Amino acid sequence: MMYRLIPVYLLLLLTNGIFAQKVKNDDSIYDNNIQTVLLHHVSGQLNPPVIRLGSNDRLRLSFDDFSEESYLFRYTLVHCTKDWETSDLEQMEYLDGFYEGEILDYAFSFNAIPAYIHYELVFPDPEVRIKLSGNYILKVYVDTPNDENVVFTRRFFVVEQLVRVEATIPYYPKNLLFTRKKQQIDLMLFTPDLFNAEPEERISVSIRQNGRWDNMKSGLKPTSIMMNQLEYNYADGIVFDGGNQFRNFDMKSFWYQSMYIRRIISDENGYNVILHTDYPKAHKPYEVVEDINGKRLVKARKDQNTTIEGEYAWVDFSLKYNLIRNADIYILGALNDWKLDKKNKMRYDPDTRMYRGDLLLKQGYYDYMYAVVPQGKTRGDVTLIEGDHWETDNDYTFYVYYREKVPEYDRLVGYAKINSVEDRTK
Q1: Domain spans, the chain
Q2: Which of 28, 88, 152, 283 ranks highest by number of CB atoms within 10 Å?
Q3: How confident is the model at residue 198 (pLDDT cuts 50, 70, 90)?
Q4: Reported pTM
């Protein structure tokens, strides 16, 4: 454990970790000292970052900073297109009040190794108010919002619910080769009169499975248009891999080893949690396993204050699987913001014929699965390792955009969420 924890610990504490690079409109961290960035509706950590335009809805941001001293972090909001490009709007067109705010709520950790400073923000507030619906980026930075000063970004949504979304997942797909494997989405929109002009050009739909971005269906256009009704009736349907239930581990406490944890090591440098070796499930029968659809719940023991007493651990993952040529395997889930990057890319160990990976995580409950990404691709395939089952419990979220012309921007006029299991019981 010493050979791993000491170098990383020193790196986190002795460097600012801010690298000059181009900031993207997604969920990214640009400072090595920043950990456990959470953005969600104030009603609960597992609820998505979505608020209704003109309502009293609020979002809660929280994060930990491993720096030795506190900083005055600032934030601003950036309006984006349906494709997450920065829109052409000026800030005065979509914000009221000030165009940036300060994050003033912070506290130092207590008895945690490594030590950190916990920050929180609830917004929008009376000083920074949102005027338009759409996709937004929350940008947090030091001093100015120039790229070199940005420490992280987070996506969120502001919706004006004008379109009704009806979606179902039929037992028999249009392509019978997908039977008992894929999940087909049958989609219909009911629109108000004001959207009757050029709906095929101005209305666009995006669909996400669970929290994933890599396999999102976007830019969906209607196949038939009737009065106030749009149908999306594609030849093979709108199809997602069924996948499988997520794997999980519970490390809300380091005092005992819960299921799926093989060993917990602790010393003066902190904790190392070693999970049991995982095995492929692709050729096994489907099993009903409770999960939270890839999310994470950052939470410590009942006698701890999670925000400032929750501790961090290096979590070791291992997967027994033969080497895949011309492809990489990633740990996929909210535990790494659903990204397929070098942090959660696994390394192949030829001696043990295993893939190995590790992530620095705060106490809590975590879902995850394994995704295979062929070289040159950006979409992960979970079916090779996890399997592919129609019965799988998946969440599907629908975003309906309408292209306004004056001013020109993408309004988010419809938002809905269905669960593949709950849909069958209706």
Answers
A1: 2-159, 164-242+392-424, 247-386
A2: 152
A3: confident
A4: 0.93
d(CA 276, CA 317): 8
Contacting residues for 269 by C-beta, under 8 A, at least 6 apart: 1, 2, 5, 6, 9, 113
Q: Kindly state the average pLDDT of the residues 172-189.
A: 94
The predicted model gives 114-139 an average pLDDT of 97
Contact between 311 and 414 under an 8 Å Cβ cutoff? The reply is no
Please list, in sequence order, all residues whose beta carbon lies within 8 angstroms of the beta carbon of residue 166, skipping any fewer than 6 positions away.
Answer: 187, 188, 189, 190
Q: Which residue has the tokens 């669909």?
A: 207
The whole-angstrom separation of Cα 64 and Cα 363 is 13
CATH architecture, range 164-242+392-424? Sandwich (2.60)
The pair of three-digit structure tokens given for residue 202, joined into one six-digit string: 């101005």
Which amino acid appears at position 84 of this protein? W
Give residue 20's pLDDT.
Answer: 54
User: How far is it, in rounded angstroms, from Cα 72 to Cα 227?
Assistant: 53
Question: Residue 414's Cα: distance from chain center in Å?
Answer: 20
pLDDT digits (tens, 9 = 90+) for 146-158: 999 999 999 999 9
Question: 229-232 and 224-226 as β-strands: parallel, antiparallel, unpaired?
Answer: antiparallel
393: Cβ–Cβ under 8 A, 6 or more apart, which residues?
Answer: 245, 291, 293, 419, 420, 421
Q: Do domains 2-159 and 164-242+392-424 have the same CATH topology?
A: yes
- Give the number of other Cβ atoms within 10 Å of residue 292's Cβ: 18
Q: Are 12 and 265 in contact (CB under 8 A)?
A: no
Count the residues in the chain: 426
- pLDDT tens column, 283-300: 999 999 999 999 999 999
The helix (H) or strand (E) run that includes residue 396 is strand 395-405
Question: Which of 20, 15, 156 is closest to 75 using CA atoms?
Answer: 156
Place of tokens 């930075």: 141
Identify the DSSP state of 215.
Answer: T
Average pLDDT over residues 318-332: 97
